[in-house]
Amino acid sequence: MPCNIVLIGFMASGKTTVGRLLATYLTWEFVDTDGEIEKLVSSPIPAIFAQKGEAYFRQVEKEIIARVAMASRKVIATGGGAILDPENRARLWADNKVVWLKIPLDTVWQRTAGDDSRPLLKGSTREQVEALFKQREPYYALAHLHVEVEGKSPGQIAQEILEGLKVWLESCR
Ligand SMILES: Nc1ncnc2c1ncn2[C@@H]1O[C@H](COP(=O)(O)OP(=O)(O)O)[C@@H](O)[C@H]1O
Ligand SMILES: O=C(O)C1=C[C@@H](OP(=O)(O)O)[C@@H](O)[C@H](O)C1
Ligand SMILES: [Mg+2]
C-alpha cells in the first residue's frame, strides 16, 4: 500500500530542501524526481533541456513518477511542472498525501537570481514566468495540504507538514 508524502509547488519553493529534511525527521527514504531523471539520463537537467528538449525531459519525468509513486514510506520531491500531466497527477495522488509548498512569485525571483539550474526560469521573462505560475496554481491547489513557505525555515515547514498529516501518518507506521 503506497504511503508516501509528495511535495509539489513552483520552482524554488523548497521541495528538494524541505523534502530531504522531512525524510530525516520521519526516517523515511527521500526521492527527488529530478535527481532520478539526472541519474537515468546521466546528465544534468539544463543539459537535458538543451540537448534533448523539454518534451524528452517530461517523458522521462513521467517514467520516474510511475515508478516512485508506487513506493512506500518515502518523501517524494517532484519538479515544479510534474503536476501538469494528468497521468502524473493520478499516480501522485493515489494513496499518497500531496503537499503544496506555496511560495510568492517575488520570492521565487529572489531565490533564483543568478541561478542557471532551472532552464524554464533562465530562458524566460518575468511575464512568462508569471504566466506559468498562474497556469500551474490550480493544479497545486489540488494538494491535500497547503503550506505557506514565506518567512519560514525549512525545519519549520517540515514540522508544519508533520503536524498537518499527523492523523494520516499514524496509519503509515
Ligand atoms: N524555507 C526556505 N527559506 C529560505 N531558503 C530556502 C527555503 N527552502 C529552500 N530554500 C532555498 O531556495 C532554493 C530553492 O530550493 P529547492 O529546495 O531547490 O526548491 P525546489 O526543489 O522547490 O525547486 C535553494 O537555494 C534553497 O536553499
Ligand atoms: O517547473 C518546472 O517545469 C521544472 C522544475 C524543476 O524542478 P524544481 O521545481 O525542483 O526546481 C525541474 O524539474 C525542471 O527544471 C522543470
Ligand atoms: Mg527541486
From TrEMBL:
GO cellular component: cytosol
Entry keyword annotation includes Repeat: no
Natural source organism: Thermanaeromonas toyohensis ToBE
Cofactors: Mg(2+)
Protein name, UniProt field: Shikimate kinase
Lineage top rank: taxon: Bacteria
Residues where substrate binds: 34, 58, 80, 136
Subcellular location: Cytoplasm
Pathway the protein acts in: Metabolic intermediate biosynthesis; chorismate biosynthesis; chorismate from D-erythrose 4-phosphate and phosphoenolpyruvate: step 5/7
Biological process per Gene Ontology, one example term: aromatic amino acid family biosynthetic process
Single GO molecular function: ATP binding
Gene: aroK
Alphabetically ordered keywords of this record: Amino-acid biosynthesis, Aromatic amino acid biosynthesis, ATP-binding, Cytoplasm, Kinase, Magnesium, Metal-binding, Nucleotide-binding, Transferase
Keyword Transferase: yes
Lineage of origin: Bacteria, Bacillati, Bacillota, Clostridia, Neomoorellales
Positions bound to Mg(2+): 16
PROSITE patterns: SHIKIMATE_KINASE
